[in-house]
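Obj: model holo form, ligand = S-adenosylmethionine.
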Amino acid sequence: MTVKKKQEIELDVTGIAFGGRGIAKIDGYTVFVDQSVPGDRVLARIVKKKKSYAEARTLQIIEPSADRIEPPCRYAGWCGGCKWQFLQYGRQLEYKRRHVREAVEHIGQISGVPVHPVLPADKIFGYRNKMEFSCSDRRWLLPEELGRTDIPKDFALGLHVPGTFDKILDIDACLLQPEKGNRILNDVRDRIRASGLAPYGLRTHEGFWRFVMLRHSVAEDRWLVNLVTAAEDRGALAAVAGYLMEAHDDIAGVVNNVTAKKAAVAAGEYEVPVSGRAFVQEQLGEFVFEVSANSFFQTNTAQAEKLYDTVRRYAQLSGSESVVDLYTGTGTIPIWLSADAGRITGLEIVESAVADAGKNCEKNQITNCRFVAGDIRQSISQIEHRPDVMIIDPPRAGMHKDVVKSVLDMAPEKMVYVSCNPATLARDLSLMAETYHVAEIQPVDMFPHTFHIEAVARLVRK
Ligand SMILES: C[S@@+](CC[C@H](N)C(=O)[O-])C[C@H]1O[C@@H](n2cnc3c(N)ncnc32)[C@H](O)[C@@H]1O
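Output (holo structure tokens):
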């Protein structure tokens, strides 16, 4: 049987793919079905047709999988923020573990690696300590909002709907952030609207307000508001910040990141402090961390402790080793391991994160960690000694192949690879497989209701 583009077809979903889509088979031909899970029978429309596979969008669930639950969020099914809210949590964990295992076997071509059950999150809502909401001059309307004249269509502050780049779903409550964040978000929306300055058009590249980033510190229970704009306007920013600081005594500060770049990235070319502090103070275990707007910090604070405990367990340090931590962010892993190692060097590209890392060591009276700013492709050459243990925690794209080569040349006895992307983890493990045995992998769920999974691999030199 062949399918055609735009065809509407009933499908039995029997598998699940990377990226969280269901898989249905028609005489061996694969159809990836969005918003579906194994056990569903759906009516779907074919939206893409290729020689070896097709992609389909679910139009109607004819028979729901026994794993489906009623999602608590009104935007579920539309919002790109979390696509698995309708799937019971235990099953999410099972599929995530399977993704890691299959990535290692199929992409990495490495068999027999024990992939442990995922360490689950205790809190599956309100767990994110950072949310980035986009502004747009085009609002994506929910089906029940279509045709309504009382809804402005030229303004939105919220999240993307997958498959649309310029329209934004206006969100007044995101269940992934603590409830207080939603009240701040709605006040920010009101003040932005009242400013008279336009939201940024993702198509026109005109307009002022670009992103609203909210960072929450669990330890302080305080917030940092980062308003990303296309230009500087101190008066407009001061008015919004003045209102927010007055209305919410748990906002620690408001900063303004300014960027004229067209890329839809919520980072500024430079940052202007507007009111209060330019950071929040977070705690992980016994350690405190200053986190500023642009510094990387694990977005799930409670799970970050489980992640770093896994790193500690896998690093098997006895107190005297030299450790190198590639992609160190604000130095959280070196600080976490500081009492277990002789000396630790962290490498990181974002200068403000390196500055935070230094400050964080001072705050925690740690003296055996140092940090090097710069792109690891070049800065790795500044590591003169051969480390006993290497920790690697790259962004989603994984390691650059030059960095893999440098790591192999340095030949540490043990490595711990932390990854937020099973596909690039598998690729990088395979690039090192001749010299390093992958002893085990522990997935840690940092992102409930999304298909994303963090995984920690323990590597031993052969
Ligand atoms: C996944 S984060 C890990 C941060 C840290 N290990 C943690 O747990 O908080 C990846 C980090 O790599 C940094 N990074 C990305 N590309 C880099 C490069 N080419 N050179 C150095 N650091 C880089 C990012 O800025 C980010 O801080």
